[in-house]
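User: My collaborator and I are trying to settle a disagreement about how two of our proteins should look. Neither of us wants to argue from intuition anymore, so we agreed to look at predicted structures for both before our next call. Could you fold the first one, then the second, and keep them clearly separated?

Assistant: That sounds like a sensible way to settle it. I'll keep them separate. The first protein:
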Amino acid sequence: MGLLTKDGDLHYYPIGDKHVCSDCFGDEYIKGFIESNAESPKCDFCGKESPEPIAADIDEVIEYIRDCISTEWGNPDDEGVPVENGEYVWPVKDSYELFYDEIELDANLACPPKIGPP
């Protein structure tokens, strides 16, 4: 299951019919989004269960994260990063590097990593 492509844009492949709980994330805003949008009593990633809804649709969570990242990160061509001899003057990261190197997302994990402070 791929989440992103390595083309510099934030794309993802919908996972479909899976739910994730706030315990799978460390970031308070992602936790809040999940808690506000919980619709399932079970997390399909860590297995946590509750009588009340505790998990949100994973595709909605990914979309939320993508939207948040888009407010902080942009295409270097659109952000005015200077180019010399066909190369960016400043360091840039594509979406793959952002997720897998900066956030240290591991696509093989059963549960998403804790993002942000514990």
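The second protein, kept apart from the first:
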Amino acid sequence: MENIKKAFINELQKLVGLKCYHTGFSLGSIIILRFGKEIININPIIHPKTGKPMTKGEFSLRVVCAWRIEKDNNIYCTWNYYSGFDEEKYNETDFITKTLTKLEDELIKVLENKTVIAVNLNEDTLDIDIDFDDNIRFSIFCDFNNWEWDTEPSEMYVFTGMNDLFRIEPNDKIIYQDLTGKYVFYEESQES
């Protein structure tokens, strides 16, 4: 197989021209983006809240580390700061629930139905900038270390395509998995 970092760059470039059709939170500030075609499995799991079959994207990105959305070259929201959120609207009792609802419904949804026009990977840090139409940018910053989590390994982000999975871990490590079940490779990006 070709160099894993080059394969990763090639897969990321496949996002160009695709729309982000879904954004959502997993847990806390962990964000999930889905791109391209929405795919329903042959034997789908039904979502308990919506009653609809759960789907996956042609490509998906699950971000655990720091991220930021910029709109018109201004910070729109980040993994720990949500510009435009009026904390005074909510009392302490419902603050968390309303915060998450507002984030999902208003802030991160700015990426939905936007077309990717460029993807740039910093090959040293594995940070990513994804540029969308309407002057919107989604950035990923690999800035936390494994010691901040009680388990290891802790991924920074995971990028999944139809047949490939790339997991970025602390210390600039890329783990590749062929989703057809044939191969698993490891590569330290600093030694590439």
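Some points you might bring to the call about the second protein. The longest helix spans residues 95-107. The longest strand covers residues 31-40.
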